[in-house]
């Protein structure tokens, strides 16, 4: 995908035969003067979900490029969007306004649930603020979120915080990495945090030291045939760090 601050988003498809050719698959242009803060695709409904600079979320049909709806509920920047793995068009948004909002594209313009982590005294960290910078979901039952408030795991069916994961600083990215609900997260303070749900001391987490002062992005792939996870991290310097099973940094790539 190509996202432009001038108000358009383009999707490209790689030519599988030549590998070096890209064909434009869709092109969406905004009528308003706005930019894109984050986006994701719900593959089952073939909808593009876009968090925009005017604090609205816009849904587009990727077959027709039409704007299906504009969801107005957040009142500050939208930092992250995650979609359900189910066939239903359910998705989640995290914002600078300190909320995580749960949406169903079929039932109108208002979220069906709102979480405010900073209202929990055990989660709030006034020194870092209320903003939510990262979210991830697992089977529409569990959600992890963090940012200024502590990293926390929520049971969506009962709307309750199940676990709080202590981190040394703010969090910019987080992800469920297994069906056991293990979580990896990173942010500032040169630290990667790995939390194992089935560890005998669930309140504790593994801290991996990084040479990247602030990590803004990470990816994960599970190699089942070889029984290990591979993680990569990048942020505010020229290196990409790679580690297996989140115990220490195995490789560093300079770019």
Explain the overall architecture.
By secondary structure, this protein is an all-beta fold. It folds into 2 domains: 1-132 and 149-166, Methylamine Dehydrogenase, Chain H (7 Propeller); 167-254. Helix content is 0%, strand content 52%. The strands form 6 sheets. Strands 4-5-6-7 form a 4-stranded antiparallel sheet, with no helix packed on it. A 4-stranded antiparallel sheet has the order 8-9-10-11, with no helix packed on it. The model has no long low-confidence stretch (mean pLDDT 89).
In short:
The chain is mostly beta strands. The chain has strands at residues 2-4, 8-14, 22-29, 36-42, 47-52, 57-61, 67-71, 78-83, 90-95, 100-104, 113-115, 132-138, 142-147, 151-155, 160-165, 171-176, 183-187, 191-195, 206-209, 215-223, 228-235, 239-244, 251-254.
Structural domains: how many: 2
**CATH hierarchy class name of the largest domain:** Mainly Beta
The rough form would be described as globular
Summing up helix and strand content along with how strands pair, one would put the structural category as: mainly beta
- Largest sheet: number of strands, sense, barrel closure: 4 strands, antiparallel
Question: Mean pLDDT across all residues, rounded?
Answer: 89
SSE sequence, one letter per element: EEEEEEEEEEEEEEEEEEEEEEE
Helix content percent band: under 10%
Distance between the termini: 21 Å
Secondary-structure blueprint of this entry?
Elements: E1 2-4, E2 8-14, E3 22-29, E4 36-42, E5 47-52, E6 57-61, E7 67-71, E8 78-83, E9 90-95, E10 100-104, E11 113-115, E12 132-138, E13 142-147, E14 151-155, E15 160-165, E16 171-176, E17 183-187, E18 191-195, E19 206-209, E20 215-223, E21 228-235, E22 239-244, E23 251-254
Antiparallel strand pairs: 1-2, 2-3, 4-5, 5-6, 6-7, 8-9, 9-10, 10-11, 12-13, 13-14, 14-15, 16-17, 17-18, 18-19, 20-21, 21-22, 22-23
């Amino acid at each position: 995908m190509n996202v432009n601050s001038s108000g358009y988003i383009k999707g490209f498809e790689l030519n599988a035969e030549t590998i070096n050719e890209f064909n434009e698959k869709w092109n969406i242009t905004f009528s308003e003067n706005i930019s894109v803060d984050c986006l994701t695709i719900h593959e089952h409904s073939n909808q593009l979900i876009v968090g925009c600079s005017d604090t609205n979320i816009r849904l587009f049909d990727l077959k027709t490029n039409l704007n299906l709806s504009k969801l107005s509920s957040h009142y500050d920047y939208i930092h992250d969007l995650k979609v359900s793995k189910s066939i239903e068009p359910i998705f989640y948004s995290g914002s600078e306004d300190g909320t995580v909002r749960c949406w169903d594209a079929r039932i109108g313009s208002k979220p069906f649930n709102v979480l405010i982590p900073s209202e929990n005294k055990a989660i709030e960290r006034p020194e870092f603020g209320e903003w939510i910078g990262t979210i991830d979901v697992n089977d529409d039952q569990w959600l992890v979120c963090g940012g200024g408030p502590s990293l926390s795991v929520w049971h969506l069916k009962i709307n309750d915080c199940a676990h709080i994961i202590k981190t040394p600083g703010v969090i910019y990215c987080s992800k469920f990495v297994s069906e056991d609900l293990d979580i990896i997260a990173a942010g500032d303070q040169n630290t990667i945090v790995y939390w194992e749900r089935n560890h005998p001391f669930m309140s504790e987490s593994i801290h991996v030291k990084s040479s990247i002062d602030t990590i803004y992005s990470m990816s994960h792939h599970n190699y089942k045939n070889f029984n290990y996870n591979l993680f990569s991290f990048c942020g505010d310097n020229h290196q990409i760090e790679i580690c297996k099973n989140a115990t220490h940094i195995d490789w560093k790539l300079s770019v």
